[in-house]
Fold this sequence. Notes:
The protein is an alpha/beta fold. It has a domain at 2-224: Amidase signature (AS) domain (Amidase signature (AS) enzymes, Alpha-Beta Complex), CATH 3.90.1300. The protein is 37% helix and 13% strand. The protein has an 11-stranded mixed sheet with strand order 1-3-2-4-6-5-10-11-9-7-8, sandwiched between helices. The protein is globular. Bound molecules: glutamine.
Amino acid sequence: QFDIMKLRDPSYQCYITMMEEEAYTQAEEIQRRIDAGELFNSTLAGVPMAVKDNICTRGIKTTCASKILYNFVPTYDATVIEKLKQAGAIIIGKTNMDEFAMGSTTETSFLGATKNPWNTECVPGGSSGGSAAAVAAEEAFYALGSDTGGSIRQPAGYCGVTGIKPTYGTVSRYGLIAYASSLDQIGTIGRNISDCTAALEVISGHDLKDSTSVNQLNYSYREALVDDVKQLRIGIPTDYLGKGLDEEVREGILNAAQIFRNKGAIVEEFEMHGVDFAVPSYYVIACAEASSNLSRFDGVKYGYRTENYEGLQDVYKNSRSEGFGNEVKRRMMIGAFVLSSGYYDAFYNKALKVRAIINEGFQRAFEKYDIILGPTAPVTAPGLGESLSDPLKMYLSDIYTVSVNLAGLPAVSLPCGRDKKGLPIGLQLIGKHFGEKDIIRAAYSFE
Ligand code: GLN
């Protein structure tokens, strides 16, 4: 595995940290456990996997692809890491991402962009671009990502792999460095839905260390890996096929819909309200939460500290000015602004109301349908550099993914063909709350 990584990573730059020595130590420990008769029922035992660099790993640098955390070594494991280790997974490295998971291209990383393995002139998507590209380039069997507004599904879509973001509260966020806490959720990226599901099953579960974690009875998602969509009711919001959608992506999605029909599912278009308002509402809420979450990076407690200061105020100001990149600064400023006393009602409160409307729209849709189908993104992977000059355009490209996080729903992105340039097209299947099994079954049947 490390031979492949060393050969390919100079071209794709999926990894921030490779953990070769640690991996061998883990492998020996796993062998010992297997010899002792443990792990016989773990599907993940001994399988090499990668972790996005915003998930804390004890003793291993966790940078969020930011200068402000370039030297941060956590003293504890995130709950998901504990669970994976328990299951005998071998963590082989930490993957590149947009700085603090803010972005859709993995270009805002302090360490430079990851490249799309299908075409190195294109972005891999983001923010979990390193994880998706690593899986696509076979530099890992599967990987963890985080999804605040599409960061698992969109890079999975651009890289032609499968990614699942579970229902909010299904996977513990303990040890995930927060971007927007009411939206963040950890999920898995793999070469197919079976791999994603096996890993999701291991990392899911109630955790007392995360107060938003939910206690469900049944996490056996692998039961849903069956090829049967007969009578499954699938709805396609008309607006998901409307303006702004690339023609080849539309064709790919309509083809996929037809495949479901042929397999016996009931597929129809319907009107869903609030689609247009999802992006503005998302960016107001995400930035507001980010401005609060990121205030802890002050140059004092951990991470980067400026060398150039005279008093405490200077330490804060200069460490933050020098430590954060432009996109992160932009979002913290927007966040502080929408939360400020004079504008709170006009922006933040209004965004919360829109969030409620979006939620309602989904609830109503799920009275009629088991699954909502649509594209993951309006286009296939853009060229490197294209989005950096036009952040607004980049934000708008999140149109199909962000509403899922606003409503806390589960969704999967899986490949459904390619465009003429050979770039993968992503198909998104959205489920109702705790409806992971529906989307897993549909994804499995589609594959
Ligand atoms: N592109 C979105 C953003 O920049 C989503 C990022 C994410 O899910 N972490 O906020």
